[in-house]
Design a protein that fits this description.
The complex is a heterodimer.
Chain A (H helix, E strand, L loop, with lengths): L18 H17 L5 H16 L4 H21 L6 H32 L14 H17 L8 H9 L12 H9 L5 H33 L6 H32 L17 H7 L2 H12 L9 H19 L3 H27 L2 H20 L3 H11 L10 H20 L3 H9 L3 H27 L12
Helix pairs in contact in A: 1-2, 2-6, 3-4, 3-5, 3-6, 4-5, 6-7, 8-9, 8-16, 8-18, 9-14, 9-15, 9-16, 11-12, 12-13, 13-14, 14-15
Chain B lengths: L1 H22 L5 E2 L4 E2 L8 H6 L1 H12 L4 H15 L8 E4 L2 E4 L6 H19 L3 E7 L3 H4 L10 H11 L4 E3 L23 H10 L12 E8 L2 H6 L6 E7 L1 H5 L1 E4 L4 E3 L23 E5 L8 E6 L2 H9 L5 E5 L9 H4 L7 E7 H4 L7
Parallel strand pairs in B: 5-6, 5-14, 12-13, 12-14
Antiparallel strand pairs in B: 1-2, 3-4, 7-8, 9-10, 9-11, 11-13
The chains are: A mainly alpha, B alpha/beta.
């Protein structure tokens, strides 16, 4: 038997939005979890989580176990060294090990490519396939060791509980980045109720529908655009807007599923999205989008660097570093770095130049301002290269020799118009507002108590139909 | 109470389908999708560690999911009616007529098809009476009129006409209409193409006419064509009609590859994974239909796709022998080993537009 190198194995992760997860893995895990006595529940979750990861990353499971052991031992070491002269050494060691794994498996080939490009060398690429979820669980482990060092978290002496925290399958591979302190108490003791389970189920199904019905459908439109016979200005715009909506429904859908599954198992994960597209400034957008990543960089990078309580040049430097890292965290490609720095520049300008002007503008104009820069940012984000991003941007702004529209463009616009409209409305709190209004009335509450479960059952069966008729459809954030 | 109901519903759906998947025996074939379904993967340590085992299991879980066709139908309803999408996996329906978008025109493929015809002419057919005809697919009649995408048929014909040398072009676009095709299938219906057979016979210089022949009209039901399964909706099946008479019934079909003899109409093929195999046993790389009732000795070599299977019986009136070559399954370089090309033969290339647009499949 010949095995491939550790990093050359394929990634085939079990998705929440897969038949194997929904109709094989989940019922078995739920059954075992709720049958098991309280003290065995974490063990069940750990075994399930390790199997969940092993399913997609058989060999990389060893890397995750190594990361867990490293995080656990470093936590103990940091706690032991506390107050001593060398208290920082275990923390630095923890950061080097965790970031070392991340850099090696995620960024090595990027660095080699750039060294080859700059110095004309011919160093062979390692062709490393990135372990799924490494960016997420690495940041979770770091949040633990740093918080233990700061005294904000108690050291976890029970390795079972710590391993459960790191590997917890609901949020293992695409977040949200759950801080150890957020679920520290629930790892030791948590309660279960039908209210929590039902909330978790509803949240999970809504996330599943967002992913499978909306995001995947919009993803098809992106593929259609890539293979289009004739690209047009309108099609460049449709593609850009569709991707912006797709990534929101894909990622927020995953977060909904993670939060829902967590709630079923008694965990209360923090929200990761808060209707980001209703923002009226870019700063507000980033307070509403991928909140767990934003707060992670704020608490573990930006504030330790001095935050905004420094001189203006230093603050600009801090912002630039944070956004460079945010971009680079998303992927080992220059377009992600440019995407991060694009936000650094915009946020600096917004705070010091546009802010007063923005406040005077009509809310609709502010909204258009945010949407305009967001669309451009997601074109950069979505591109496989800087050149591709430039071509797509040129196409949007009449800088390519393409017609405004065509029969083909109009066909796809017509075919996807309703899905895009639903996506736009679904990205706002409109539905939530309507439900809360209905809930004010007794009759409304009664109607909802029947209507809501019926809709969720229908959505679940519809999702199953989409899955059965579909094929492999990984989440976009798996690659980060 | 509501929370308990939600929880119970969820558990029942998950565990119910899990149990059903475990209990219900696996299917070997999907008749609606006309393909073999995945089987449960065999375990090996190598496959486990490489991830192949779970990848295969994913395919298996999708393929063997209980009520798979029902769920595919739910998805189709969702796309067409809930989300107002125009097509589902490129399948669209106009007034109960199902078709699959073939778009865009692949000009390189059409050039390649023309070159393939020229190569065969140069190698085997010089001095013979050679014609070619193109069968429009259903999209020619349905797509653009109803707002769907279709290939540029004018350009396709233009490329063929400009590049195919030494062959006479027989126009079929102007003699066909959407009513000549099955609603649930890609193919034309035999009872609707007698006039097409007449056009071909006339253009090939054959005095016989299918319209002058007495046929008995037979019907078979239900005929769920190839698009029926792909549409995944419960639509009215077609009636398969075939025309027969003593000439056709007494004709003998010889398969040069299997070296077997059979009949023109294969009744046991109706109701199988592809009922259109009823005509000349479907996809066969090289067969000859011998017509003892025709004593003229006239011979036709028909390079064809599956459309040729149903029109060949209508051409029998004018030929003692029709050899059908399917270049999708038979290499050009082997033709000389099996067929004696002589000057008196009529040669017809009869392909539908979708084959020309994917001509890489022609060997």
């Amino acid at each position: 038997m010949r095995l491939s190198p550790l990093w050359a194995n394929k990634a085939n992760n079990m998705l929440f939005s897969s038949i194997s997860f929904l109709y094989y893995f989940l019922p078995v895990v739920l059954g075992l979890y709720f049958i098991a006595p309280g003290k065995f529940k974490n063990f069940i979750l750990l075994v399930a989580s390790l199997f969940f990861y092993f399913y997609g990353e058989p060999v990389y499971s060893l890397l995750m176990v190594a990361s867990i052991v490293s995080g656990y031992l470093h936590g103990l070491w940091i706690n032991r060294a506390r107050g001593g002269r060398c208290a920082k050494i275990p923390l630095v060691s923890s950061i080097i090990v965790s970031i070392g794994f991340l850099v090696f498996f995620k960024y090595t080939d990027f660095f080699i490519e750039n060294v080859n490009s700059i110095f004309g060398t011919n160093i062979a690429l390692l062709k490393i396939i990135m372990p799924i979820g490494i960016s997420f669980y690495t940041f979770q482990i770091l949040s633990y060791t740093i918080d233990v060092y700061r005294g904000e978290a108690k050291v976890q002496r029970n390795i079972l509980n710590f391993a459960t925290y790191v590997s917890l399958f609901p949020q293992l591979i695409a977040g949200p980045i759950v801080r150890y302190t957020d679920i520290e108490a629930e790892l030791a003791h948590r309660t279960h109720s039908f209210a929590d389970i039902a909330y978790g189920i509803n949240r999970f199904i809504m996330g599943l529908a967002k992913k499978v019905i909306i995001a995947n459908t919009l993803g098809e439109l992106g593929k259609v655009f890539s293979n289009a016979n004739e690209k047009t200005v309108l099609f460049y715009w449709i593609n850009a807007i569709a991707f912006m909506l797709q990534i929101y429904f894909d990622f927020s859908g995953y977060s909904d599923m993670a939060i829902g599954l967590g709630r079923i198992f008694g965990f209360h994960f923090l929200e990761n999205f808060n209707y980001p597209f209703i923002s009226k400034s870019l700063a507000e957008f980033w307070r509403r989008w991928h909140m767990s990543l934003g707060t992670w960089f704020r608490d573990y990078v930006y504030i330790p660097m001095g935050g905004n309580r420094v001189s203006k040049p230093r603050w600009i430097w801090n912002i630039s570093v944070v956004w460079f890292l945010t971009g680079f965290w998303h992927g080992a490609q220059w377009n992600f770095i440019i995407w991060g720095l694009y936000y650094a520049v915009l946020l600096i300008l917004e705070k010091h130049l546009f802010n007063k002007l923005l406040e005077k503008l009509h809310p609709a104009a502010r909204h258009i301002y945010v949407m305009f820069f967001l669309v451009i940012s997601f074109v950069i984000f979505n591109a496989n290269s800087i050149n591709e991003a430039l071509v797509n941007l040129k196409g949007m702004f009449f800088m390519l020799d393409v017609p405004f529209t065509s029969f083909e463009t109009n066909y796809y616009l017509g075919s996807y118009a309703l899905v895009m409209t639903i996506a736009v409305i679904g990205a706002t709190p409109a539905a939530k507002g309507i439900i809360s209004r209905i809930n004010r009335y007794n009759m409304g509450r009664l109607a909802l108590s029947v209507f809501e479960p019926a809709v969720h059952v229908a959505l679940f069966l519809l999702v199953t139909g989409y899955l059965v008729d579909g094929s492999f459809n990984p989440f976009l954030y798996f690659r980060f | 109470m509501k929370n308990i109901v939600v929880t119970l519903c969820f558990i029942i759906i998950l565990s119910g389908f899990m149990a059903a998947n475990a209990i219900v025996p696996d299917n070997e074939f999907s008749f609606s999708e006309r393909r073999k379904l995945s089987e449960i993967p065999e375990f090996s340590l190598e496959k486990l560690l490489s991830g192949d085992l779970f990848e295969e299991f994913e395919e298996y879980a999708l393929d063997q999911f209980v009520l798979r066709d029902v769920f595919r139908g739910i998805k189709a309803i969702g796309r067409y009616y809930l989300f107002n999408q125009k097509d589902n996996n490129k399948i669209y329906i106009v007034d109960g007529n199902i078709s699959k978008m073939e778009y865009p025109l692949d000009e390189r493929s059409v050039f390649n098809a023309a070159k393939k015809l020229n190569d065969i002419y140069t190698r085997y057919l010089q001095g013979t009476n050679v014609s070619y005809a193109i069968i429009p697919d259903k999209n020619y009649f349905l797509a653009s009129q109803n707002g769907y995408l279709s290939m540029d048929y004018d350009r396709l014909v233009e490329i063929m006409n400009q590049n195919v040398k030494n062959m006479k072009y027989i126009d079929l676009f102007s003699v066909l209409s959407i009513e000549d095709y099955y609603r649930t299938d890609i193919h034309w219906s035999q009872d609707r193409i007698i006039h097409v057979a007449d056009v071909l016979l006339k253009e090939l210089g054959n005095e016989a006419r299918a319209s002058g022949v007495q046929y008995s009209r037979e019907e078979m039901y239900p005929f769920n064509g190839s698009f029926y399964g792909q549409a995944a909706l419960r639509l009215e099946p077609d009636i398969m009609v075939y025309l027969t008479n003593d000439i056709i019934e007494n004709a003998v079909v010889y398969d040069h590859i299997d070296k077997t003899y059979s009949k023109v109409y294969m009744h046991d093929r109706f109701g199988t994974i592809d009922s259109y195999d009823f005509f000349l046993s479907g996809a066969r790389s090289l067969i000859t239909v011998l017509n003892p009732a025709c004593t003229t000795g006239r011979e036709l070599i028909l390079f064809r796709d599956s459309f040729g299977s149903s029109i060949a019986p209508l051409l029998l009136e004018g030929y003692s022998k029709i050899t059908l070559v399917d270049l999708r399954y038979f290499g050009t370089e082997l033709l000389g080993d099996y067929i004696d090309f002589t000057e008196g033969q009529d040669i017809l290339f009869l392909y539908n537009t979708q084959i020309l647009n994917k001509s890489a499949m022609l060997k």
